[in-house]
Amino acid sequence: MENDNSGFFEKVYKVTSLIPPGRVSTYGAIARYLGSAGSSRMVGWALNNCHSMGEFIPAHRVVNRNGILTGKHHFGTTSAMEQLLANENIMVEDDRVIDFAALFWDPCREL
DNA sequence: GGTGTGACAATGG
DNA sequence: GCCATTGCCACAC
Predict the structure, then answer these.
(1) Cα(A95)–Cα(A87) distance, rounded to whole angstroms?
(2) pTM metric for this prediction
(3) Which of A32, A36, A62, A73 is the most buried (most CB within 10 A)?
(4) Which residues of chain A have pLDDT under 70?
(5) Closest CA to A86 of A71, A78, A50, A110
(6) Bridge partner list, A26
(7) Distance CA A90, CA A100 (A)
(8) pLDDT in tens, A10-40
(9) A14/C2 CA-to-C1' distance in Å
């Protein structure tokens, strides 16, 4: 299919797209689900290339393990990510997801 | 084929 | 408890 990217990236996009609305995930969780727990940084990098994809990736649902919107700057504007999260009923305060633990979506556990 | 990187994570001081 | 450093692994040049 069209998703014949480099493999790891494709999985990142896939899993990220599979994040249910109103939920958030972490780079480490996704990386671990892909079989590479130490590739947490790769997840972020993959999302960085998400702009090269012809499809929108809900990367705003992906935050670091602290629930902090680390990559909000990559959305163009810092408010873009917060707006997107707010649109998903996710409240963000001080660049951090409120009740992140409850909204945390683990692909290894829920998928 | 080697080097650099990158939106993290974990540990140490 | 907060700041700095290292590890990590896959992709781009």
Answers:
(1) 15
(2) 0.89
(3) A62
(4) 1-6
(5) A78
(6) A63
(7) 9
(8) 889 999 999 999 999 999 999 999 888 888 8
(9) 36
Task: Say how far apart CA A72 and CA A60 lie, in whole Å.
Answer: 7
Contacts with A73 (C-beta within 8 Å, 6 or more apart), sequence order = none
What are the residues with a C-beta under 7 Å from any atom of nucleic chain C? Answer: A 6-9, 36, 38-42, 45, 49
Q: Which protein residues have their Cβ less than 7 angstroms from some atom of strand B?
A: A 26-28, 39-45, 47-48, 50-51, 59, 62, 64-66, 70-71, 73-75
CB A96 within 8 A of CB A67: yes
Alpha-carbon distance of A57 to A40, in angstroms, equals 17
Nearest nt by C1' to A57 Cα: B7
Chain-centroid distance of CA A100 in Å reads 13
- CA–CA dist A53, A5 (Å, integer): 10
Grouping H, G, I as helix, E, B as strand and the rest as coil, residue A99 is coil
Q: Which residue reads 């079989």 in tokens?
A: A35
